[in-house]
Amino acid sequence: MSLPRIPDATVGRLPVYLRVLTDLDGAGVTTVSSEQLADLAGVNAAKVRKDLSYLGTYGTRGVGYGVDYLRFEISSRLGLATATGVAIVGLGNLGRALASHRGFADRGFPVVGLFDVDDAKVGTELAGVTIAHLDTLGAPDGPAVAIGVIATPAAVAQDVADRLVAAGVRAILDFAPTLISVPAGVTLRKVDLALELQVLSYYHHRDHALDADDPAAPSRSAPTR
Amino acid sequence: MSLPRIPDATVGRLPVYLRVLTDLDGAGVTTVSSEQLADLAGVNAAKVRKDLSYLGTYGTRGVGYGVDYLRFEISSRLGLATATGVAIVGLGNLGRALASHRGFADRGFPVVGLFDVDDAKVGTELAGVTIAHLDTLGAPDGPAVAIGVIATPAAVAQDVADRLVAAGVRAILDFAPTLISVPAGVTLRKVDLALELQVLSYYHHRDHALDADDPAAPSRSAPTR
DNA sequence: TAGATTGTTAATCGATTAACAATC
DNA sequence: TAGATTGTTAATCGATTAACAATC
Predict the structure, then answer these.
(1) pTM of the entire structure?
(2) CA distance A196 to A157
(3) Domain count, chain A
(4) What is the pLDDT of residue A130?
(5) Which terminus of chain B, N or C, has fewer Cβ atoms within 10 Å?
(6) B71 touches chain A (CB under 8 A)
(7) In Å, what is the separation between the CA of B64 and the C1' of D1?
(8) Is B36 a member of any domain?
(9) CATH number of the domain that A161 lies in?
(10) Which domain holds residue B45?
């Protein structure tokens, strides 16, 4: 009765399919083929069918996939039905941008808590949420936090992670460029924006470094993740 | 005389090693073993040695790797010596955060251009750069842009990508959650913040959905990328 | 039935890892 | 020389892809 394991690579593509399906649904489309879905998601059709097969068999041969049904299935397997409140810790430039980012609430992750240690920020309001002091994280009268986002300087990221864990948060998205460790049972995912620029720099450099010497050098494309 | 191909997975880890090496250098450390580097980067030692072997043989058996030398090599292979100006298009919450993000300039990517279509924003200054109208992108008297960052709504992302390409930009980092296409020879990389939350949600849900039924269920950890 | 499209197989490709000979 | 640590091999594992039988 246990659900089949979904490969990591597939997990990373499910949100892309979900976004495409949501767009299709908004456009009134009710059925989609693996070929169409692949085009819209930027992958190939074999991969789409293989990925969706891990969810079960929700397509109809000769017809395609039901947009609504597939949306529901992916959403449910991603845990989006239960995932809710996001707390952002650290309201510097990045934290403030994330707090105001429409994309989060739009895709099922309302920002319910904002925390900082700067007294000049505590008490002020941002995107409809009042910034609280980090020391109040986990207080009984505080917001129900399902996911913690770390947007602090690297130097304090581990301390913030520890506080989030102590407050009962079991899923953390970390933007600080440093290694942090969390106990077993806590899910941690990292995003490093400068790293993305460096990786981009590598492929750009690789494909163009020799342009002056050899203008006819073939351009290979970088993986888009 | 051509450099050996570096696997994509390795390219994604080189910036992590570079960050660790920079920290070590700052702390006065001159030599590091694959074991130490692995610990600090959050991977295992075999992977570090394999990854570094693609750069050539810069270690010394029985001793380790020279911190300075390795930093230089990685930095050079990532193209960080030539990579320079970043232009950010779209100065909503995310774009403004990226423009003010210290991490970019700190790691070799100074923000030299800011572009938007909103006349209320054009002419104002942000992080020391005056916001210009998108129509002036690529103007002869404009900044030299090596990397373009798209931080606009999804609906206009393709148009912005086309304009960046027309202006001669050959490397694009795209934050808009939609599929965009660029001509061969242009390197595109995508970051989708809400997608990261959804992937996090999957692993969290998978590892905890059954907690109520089976509190002793083993917790598996999510890949941190 | 005929055409279309899924779901699955199997081959291929790329990434990871342990082990150890090479060598400082 | 003895101890330490790299660089590389080879086995294993996971991801991708084309092909096609199943079937709507």
Answers:
(1) 0.92
(2) 20
(3) 2
(4) 97
(5) N
(6) no
(7) 20
(8) yes
(9) 3.40.50.720
(10) 8-77
